[in-house]
Amino acid sequence: MYKNIKPTMNVKAAVINKPQAKFDIEEIQLDQKLGPNDILVKVVATGICHTDLIMRDEFFPFPKPAVFGHEGSGIVEQVGNAVNKVKAGDHVIMAPASYGQCENCVSGHPAYCLNFMELNFGGHKHDGSCPYHNHEGKEMGSGFFGQSSFANYSLVKENNVVKVDKDVPLELLGPLGCGFQTGSGTVLKFLKARPGDSIVIVGVGAVGLSAIMAAKLAGCTTIVAADIHDNRLELAKELGATHTINSKDKKITDYVLSEIAPKGLDYGLDTTGRNNVISDAMGAVKIMGHMAIVIVAADKLELDAPVIQVGKSISFVNEGDSNPDVYIPKLIKLYKAGLFPIDKLVKYYDFEDFNKAVEDSEKGNTIKAIIKMPH
Which residue among 5, 122, 180, 216 is least packed, with the fewest CB closer than 10 Å? Predict the structure, then answer.
């Protein structure tokens, strides 16, 4: 049974009104009439991800004005009458949207849902309607990754929430829905790294550092971190890297082959999306080795031919190829056991300091900015 509620509610949101602009803090309207599989979530906190920022700058077309955000965590406020997974009061992480019934979803690969692009980048609800309107009554691009968590309330589907225990700080957990599961899942689930394996991880922001922690968990004995920021490389060592390379000063391939592994490394993982960097790292991967790319790359992927002419393979990996309902609770158990210390990567910001958090993230001063939402 539903309580008597108004059809719309006032929501605070960080809004992009035009490309490459700052986020405007606005009060907007959310249609809170729930469909059978809808869930209204009070957003407690949300991470800021690289993908939010390139979408701000129109890497892909997305309707403006827009509410982005896709690393949200919160408390279930209300559920539709067909929802069985969660109930009001439950703590949840919001993960990417998926159809749930296509061949990839049912085989345990929702990150490769056949409807992934439409559900996560379409700018509207799954049925084509728009539940968000600005103060002028204009429809807003929303439903980003099925959640648009840069607002203090989010309307999501049952498929893209993961129920979590209440004994873990909820404000910390949102990035498990994207960045942290992407890095760790690529190492543990996609590459399936094993004890004694070797890997080079290029770009040690939130995704790269979570990959380093995962490589340590997998028992990799050679874990090479490459970045242009010495402070991040120091943290990478603390979290499990056995070697570090400042790629501003040294070529990754030359240093790996001359100082670490003359025959190359088993795996590579790139978080930069830059062709020259990927090509350099690919040269450090051994014959028959495998390179994973885990970030939105340039329009064209162009590599030096010699680095891939010896049986090497390269894959673009979505969301760590993870099933969030299964994988995220495992990451939380690892965090509680002190084996996946994601708290070392984050810095919290108040909602009013949203643009400061964006600036710090883009300058590399903050690894993972998390916004605490107002209520």
Answer: 5
Total domains present in the chain: 2
Pairing of strands 243-246, 24-31: unpaired
Q: CA-to-CA distance for 261 and 285, rounded, in angstroms?
A: 9
pLDDT, tens digit, for every residue of 246-291? 999 999 999 999 999 999 999 999 999 899 999 999 999 999 999 9
Longest dimension (CA), the chain: 70
Both 130 and 275 in a single domain?
no
- Per the CB < 8 A criterion, the answer to whether 182 and 225 are in contact is no
Total-model pTM: 0.93
Q: What is the mean pLDDT of residues 41-60?
A: 93
Torsion of CA 208, 210, 213, 214, to 10 degrees: -100
Using the predicted structure, report yes or no on whether residue 318 has a pLDDT greater than 80.
yes
Range of the domain at 230: 182-317
Which are the contacts of 241, defined by CB distance < 8 A and separation ≥ 6? 201, 204, 212, 223, 224, 225, 233
How far, in Å, CA of 296 to CA of 2, rounded? 41
